[in-house]
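Help!! Second protein's tokens look totally different from the first
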Amino acid sequence: MNTNRKLLIVEKIQGFLERCELPEMLLLRVLTAFFSVSSAVNFVMADRKIDAVWNWQEYISAVPFWGVLLTFAYVFAVLCVVCALLPKRLRIFDPILTLCSVLIFDLQLLLGKDNLYLTIGVMLVSLVVIAYALNKMPPMKQSDKKSDRICVVIISVFAAAMVVFISVGTIHHHYLFYTGTHDFGLFVQMFHSLADNLTAVTSCERDRFMSHFAIHSSYIFYLLVPIFKLFPYEETLLVAQAMLAMGGIVPFILIAKKRGFTGFQLLLIGAAYVFSTSLIAPCFYDFHENAFLPTLLMWTLWAVDTKKTLPFYIFSVLVCMVKEDAPLFIISIGMYAFFENKGSLKRLHGLFAAMLSGAYMVFITKWLTENGDGQTMTSSRFGHLLLDSDGGIVDVVFNSFSNPGYLLSLLIQEKTLVFLLQVMIPMLFLPFFTKKIHRFLLMIPFIVTNLIIGANYGYAADIGFQYIFGPATLLIFMSLINVNDMTPQMRRNIPVLWGIAAMLFFVGTDAANLKYVRQYNEKRDYYIQSEQMLDSIPEDAVIAGNALIISHVCDRDEVYIFDYNDINADKTALIDPERYDFVALFIKTEIYGDAVPLLEEEGFTLWSQSNDHIVIYKSPLYEETTVNQN
């Protein structure tokens, strides 16, 4: 009797454990309970202003350990009971709850931190847990057209929201006087010139009147002229840049759908693009022609992937119009297309486009060197590959092939290694996961533009600058086509991990840019007063000022950066003070203390002052000139 009763009890326990899906779901349930309780504790501590990272000792002291342990046990028990009560068809809730609990914990921990190493650590641990959860999920049904349309709508909402995020963040970054003449003020002045007379003349870029097209062959800017003509404001450029960075999502989704990705996988693939830190971070410094590349390059890759010849040539031409080094992208894409389309005569179009682009690149760099300021750009970017500082792009190629050992030594250095991780970790290093070696041709711009040039020119190996826009677009495409070649199980799981990795990286790094909105709103009147004061300077006046001030007065023909190049070596006199009608300076700067006595010596008088922020001095010659003209 006792034995039968014991057996009955054991059977009931076994039956209950089976209904609870234990021990199969034991680890998942433990993880869900752990991350859920940890999130709740984080929420309570955040309310007390105790941060888990920055105030970790205080955090540990404040946590009621035994209370947390009991809560963990309670949550685990509730999860088991719920599972036992649910019908079998709904018992996929364990992997889903684990995924959700991990993401909530990550969002709480990372949001606003702007900490690269914390983000990498949290992301790696989370992806291991999420990968385990995904492997516990049963195969999903094939999505239908309706669900695919819903996913596309959600991706569109994500992209639109990201455009708003970037626009709001960069505009407030500008309102805070954080945007320099390079690279924002010069483009504002250039677009006013383009809108007025279709020339790209600036005075602040090289401290003299000069066309921007004598420095960079960025004729693509003409496409934005009608928009700037309608909305001739600094903010227009920042919004346009955000839209251009996100514009590549349309052809990217078309490529993904053609490759057979649907439903949830399609949604997360879209998220991988929208939340790519390599496309978001460069937007915050501050405006650049390279922002055209994500949209134009992705459409070019779409044309290659769908074998559409005419669009391929059209977008190839547009890419080459972005900048003198942009043909490198078409060379890479063209060579990729040649080897990808084996057995088809259309492969010759790739080879032809690559040859034409290479010829154009040599021609335009030579023309800029002989007729403009192209030599400065070549020597600053490729100086470590030139024997003679007057050499050109042909010399760079010749020297590279002559000494490949030195070239390889530039690939990975201490200063480029962190950059490499920043770019590749959110992509899960997917560009490397292929046996088709010709696909690595698409990595050439990243290797040349970012790693090799970045070894000498630090900005090229900084994810916060514009040089990553184009290479990252090709890397994202490589990631997609490499996932497409994987096993069905990997095709199901990797897009989810890729999309989540991109989102976590965004939250842990780029989301902190919302601080600019908060900083501006805290002193809104302060900055508005400075802006209004600068706007009150007569339109015909020639203005000089700090580099961060000039961006706010570039809607006029003649503005210059005022720095120590305008003061003699002994700091006893100004150099050529007659060229300026007004000089605007930040009060809390070293040059303010050195320049103001010299300005007053030359007869400049205080014209206006905005709190303790900006002061404006007027030349004694300005009124005399005005009187003579009248």
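Here's the second one for comparison:
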Amino acid sequence: MVAFLFLATLTTAPSAARRTPLVLAVERARPAVVNINAEEVVRAFASDDPWQLFFGGGRIRDQVRTSLGSGFVFDERGYVLTNYHVVARGSRIQVSFDDGSDYIARVVGTDPGGDLAVLKIQVDRKFPAAPLGASSDLMLGEPTIAIGNPFGLNQSVSMGVISALHRPVHAEGRSYYDFIQTDASINPGNSGGPLLNADGNVIGVCSAVLATGQGIGFAIPIDRALRVAKELQKSGALAEAWWGFDADSLDKEAAAALGAKTGALVTSVEDNSPASAAGLRRGDAIVRVEGSPVRDADELRFLLRDVPLGTRVLLGVVRGKKEIEARISATPLTAERAQGVFESRTGLTVAELSAREARSAGYDVSKPVLAVHEVSRNSAAARAGLRRGDLVRAVNSAEVDTMMDFQKAIAQARKSGRAVLLVQRGYRLQEFGFDLG
């Protein structure tokens, strides 16, 4: 009798007092949370002997690198939302659920600039989808819950509150804007997991962009993340707009001359472009986009990147210490225009050479090639060490022989946010990478 009572005590269900709203919130969302294991195969020399590497004979072997992260099912058909950096280089992606089931997934689409990616589980069945909330009515101090895979510790739960909204973050050479800041623990491995409110609804996508931030976590607001996710589901990439101008952050000297505190200084305007049609001029300072303040050039790009094609955007512009308004149209970015944007960003201009011209320059080729025609001073291309006369053989592993090849490759590279050029100089091949975000 005593043994029976003892066993009954051990199997008693948790009391109602212990099943708090936060416990219920976790139970609502947890079945939809996945751990992500992305494997990248890299080629490396089996020997570290420098003499063997120099003189040859070193064996090359494949090595597997693993990236750990989190995500959550946002569509019951098996679509998973996560961070781009979690799966950026993964050639084999596996997702694992709390019930122990594992599945292979493929990348459907990516938004490198927004650090978002959509995966599709390669099984035709329904999956538990996370309850989705909104980020438009968040309150400072309201509870938050992060679920993820920090340091490989799967399905870990941490709690905190919303510390700040619309927070800009600068990390690892990139700028992010409009983040939710929370003191819930968000560590490497949490990236891509859901940030929940007290009802168990997803209000953000966790992003461990500040790995050194003690007690500080950030999340991408769910309203923006879902807009991006739905477009990635549909087309695999965000439709990019062409604006026809370049801008740099406003420095103190220019700000004082214009009478503006912050903003983005227009440095060039293309002829027959949306910018020229809107009346923008070199030397203007863009200080607002649809009423939202612009702190620098990165924030201007962020505010413009999510604008749907065909939309007319209201800009606040300071010219001659007076603020005026300009309306600019989001125009589709064609492959030809993508090349122009690339040249403007990198300072690199290429030209097509016939096989005869290339042979006269000392290259043993039998078909047309692309060569570096011009490298602007103090540009990204100049800093990387590119020179006039270098041959461009491939962009992101896609062979390029003609200007049409190059334009298509650059347009495709913009979807991943980075272009890696394989360049030949004499008999030597070298790679040069440029961020396009």
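Reply: Different proteins will give different token patterns, so don't panic. The domain at 20-45+59-238 is CATH 2.40.10.120 (Thrombin, subunit H).
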